[in-house]
């Protein structure tokens, strides 16, 4: 099938590449000419495992191309995806200006029937706005062209996006007309193998499904962080509690890891946006507010533990920080817990030596040159002249350090483990002090 995708961000690029990989003919459109030129020359703007070779291979055989020419891209697609960003507005609701700008462009240039599909995470009711916008533009030029607007939310995880896209656990199609449903089923048929993964529903339910999924996952995390904070106070170990509850299939093993708080471009923004939507409909979503405030407090928890050990004044202290990305296998630092921690350390007079396997360039862009930050090129280099180690992101390579060597390197011989990677007994046996999340025993 012929597919057009607006937006070569994370969602658009991964989706477009995977659709091309199973044989569809995909054109990706972006207004950023430099990005388009880069992509046509094999420069991938994001770090995502497995993506680069797939982009290059599909581009080379002509199934995947990139352009800033919207009219020709609109002429190409039987299915036209909108996968542009929906950044949070000042009040926390999702800002639809990019989505609606694409809808206007589609309305201005559509010449034949098409299915327009919202893939961006958008508030319930947005498909209606997109439909009205396209219809308005068509009417303005007296064009009588049939089109449908469907919702098809994405459930990709950064760092595992190609896999999620190629082997989805579900494909949610929000559409009412049989023509749109049929087209999308045909488009996704190569991913719908072995058992039925496609769930067809009305548009508003599909839009809400996306928010419900992310809000549920964020709730699990905040819940565990809350239990961790209780564990710390009552002298229990949340890691034991986690193991004690995860085997119940109704709870499950996934997403019950306490830590330094959730970050990224999705959970913080989506929890807020859903709360806002519900408020706009006259309902105060109590739980969502609590999920957000627990997370906000949790992002300050590592610093609280540091204060417990060192006191409030950290001038003259240097902290080795392992991990800056909001989670492993990405260079993304949006809403990352590391950002809060570094600011708190600097405000208290400390210096930071940080190492992240992928996010160094991003950290440089965010923080610029400053005297109290050294971005190191290895985990070991970050330890030089440091008083303490703080682990913020659970990259695999941080899982099994030589604790004896750590004790020798760190002037104060103390580890703050923001992701509970280590066993307190093992760390303490090596002569280091240990602080984890919710490990009060
Ligand atoms: C999330 C969802 O997992 C995807 O299903 C969804 O499609 C995506 O948002 C989106 O809306 O686009 P992502 O933001 O890439 O994906 O990251 P996650 O792997 O979900 O991690 C989010 C945060 O939660 C990270 O900061 C991670 O460290 C934290 N986390 C995760 C925990 O603190 N504990 C856990 O048990 C799991």
UniProtKB/TrEMBL annotation:
Its EC number is 1.1.1.22. It holds the Pfam family UDPG_MGDP_dh. Residues 320-424 form the UDP-glucose/GDP-mannose dehydrogenase C-terminal domain. It catalyses: UDP-alpha-D-glucose + 2 NAD(+) + H2O = UDP-alpha-D-glucuronate + 2 NADH + 3 H(+). Gene3D superfamilies: Cytochrome c1, transmembrane anchor, C-terminal, NAD(P)-binding Rossmann-like Domain. SUPFAM superfamilies: 6-phosphogluconate dehydrogenase C-terminal domain-like, NAD(P)-binding Rossmann-fold domains, UDP-glucose/GDP-mannose dehydrogenase C-terminal domain. It comes from the Bacteria. InterPro entries: 6-PGluconate_DH-like_C_sf, NAD(P)-bd_dom_sf, UDP-Glc/GDP-Man, UDP-Glc/GDP-Man_DH_C, UDP-Glc/GDP-Man_DH_C_sf, UDP-Glc/GDP-Man_DH_dimer, UDP-Glc/GDP-Man_DH_N, UDPglc_DH_bac. Pathway: Nucleotide-sugar biosynthesis; UDP-alpha-D-glucuronate biosynthesis; UDP-alpha-D-glucuronate from UDP-alpha-D-glucose: step 1/1. Keywords: NAD, Oxidoreductase. This is UDP-glucose 6-dehydrogenase.
């Amino acid at each position: 099938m012929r597919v057009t995708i607006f937006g070569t961000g994370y969602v658009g690029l991964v989706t477009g590449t995977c659709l091309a990989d199973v044989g569809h003919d995909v054109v990706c459109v972006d207004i950023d000419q430099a990005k388009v030129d880069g992509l046509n020359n094999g420069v991938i703007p994001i770090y995502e495992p497995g993506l680069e070779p797939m982009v290059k291979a599909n581009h080379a055989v002509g199934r995947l191309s990139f352009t800033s020419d919207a009219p020709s891209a609109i002429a190409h697609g039987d299915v036209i995806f909108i996968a542009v960003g929906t950044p949070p507005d000042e009040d926390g609701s999702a800002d639809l200006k990019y989505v609606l700008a694409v809808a206007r462009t589609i309305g201005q240039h559509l010449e034949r029937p098409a299915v327009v599909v919202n893939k961006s995470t958008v508030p319930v009711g947005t498909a209606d706005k997109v439909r009205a916008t396209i219809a308005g533009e068509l009417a303005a030029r007296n064009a009588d062209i049939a089109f449908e607007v469907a919702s098809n939310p994405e459930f990709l995880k950064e760092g595992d996006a190609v896999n999620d896209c190629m082997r989805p656990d579900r494909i949610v199609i929000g559409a009412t007309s049989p023509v749109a449903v049929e087209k999308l089923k045909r488009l996704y048929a190569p991913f719908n193998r072995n058992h039925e993964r496609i769930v067809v529903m009305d548009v508003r339910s599909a839009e809400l499904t996306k928010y419900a999924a992310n809000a549920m996952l964020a709730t699990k995390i905040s819940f565990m962080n809350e239990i961790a904070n209780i564990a710390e106070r009552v002298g229990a170990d949340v890691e034991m509690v986690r193991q004690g509850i995860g085997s119940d299939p109704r709870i499950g093993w996934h997403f019950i890891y306490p830590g330094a708080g959730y970050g990224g471009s999705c959970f913080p923004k989506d929890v807020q946006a859903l709360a806002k939507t519900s408020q706009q409909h006259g309902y105060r979503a109590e739980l969502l507010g609590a999920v957000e405030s627990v997370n906000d407090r949790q992002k300050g928890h590592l610093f609280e533990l540091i204060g417990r050990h060192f006191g409030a004044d950290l001038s003259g202290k240097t902290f080795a920080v392992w991990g800056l990305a909001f989670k492993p296998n990405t260079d993304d630092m949006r809403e990352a817990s590391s950002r809060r921690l570094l600011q708190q350390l600097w405000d208290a007079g400390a210096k930071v030596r940080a190492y992240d396997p992928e996010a160094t360039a991003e950290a440089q862009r965010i923080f610029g040159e400053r005297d109290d930050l050294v971005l190191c090129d290895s985990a070991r280099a970050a330890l030089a002249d440091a008083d303490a180690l703080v682990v913020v992101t659970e990259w695999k390579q941080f899982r099994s350090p030589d604790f004896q060597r750590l004790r020798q390197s760190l002037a104060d011989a103390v580890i703050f483990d923001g992701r509970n990677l280590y066993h307190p007994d093992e760390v303490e046996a090596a002569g280091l002090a240990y602080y984890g999340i919710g490990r009060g025993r």
